[in-house]
Amino acid sequence: MNFWRWLITPDPDPGFTRTKLLKLVIRVLLFATVATLLSSLLALTPLRPYLNTWWGSLVFILILYVPMARFLLVDSFVPRRGTGAAATSGKSGKSTLSSAQRRKDRNRYAGVKKGPPKYGGRR
Predict the structure, then answer these.
(1) Taking a C-beta distance cutoff of 8 angstroms, is the pair 51, 43 a contact?
(2) Residues with Cβ < 8 Å from 82, sequence gap 6 or more?
């Protein structure tokens, strides 16, 4: 597995393991390096006076930091999928619920009162 794929692939293990913390440190160092290089390069352009204002810094931060937040938080909030052992089968990952259970889930809100009929109901 190449380095970039290893870095951006979420780790399914719960909690902050040694591997997750190592990935986080590497991501933060890469991000700090990229942010510093971009800031230095933009300071060499005619945009320097604007970047030295509070609103110029704010625009730079929003343009750079907001898209990078997803990259930095890859391992922090991994969604749980198929937490129950009966919810998935071994290799295929498909649902193994019985037809009665599926019908029960489908009809769960069957008794909820519906809104009035559209366009006057029956004719």
Answers:
(1) yes
(2) 88, 93
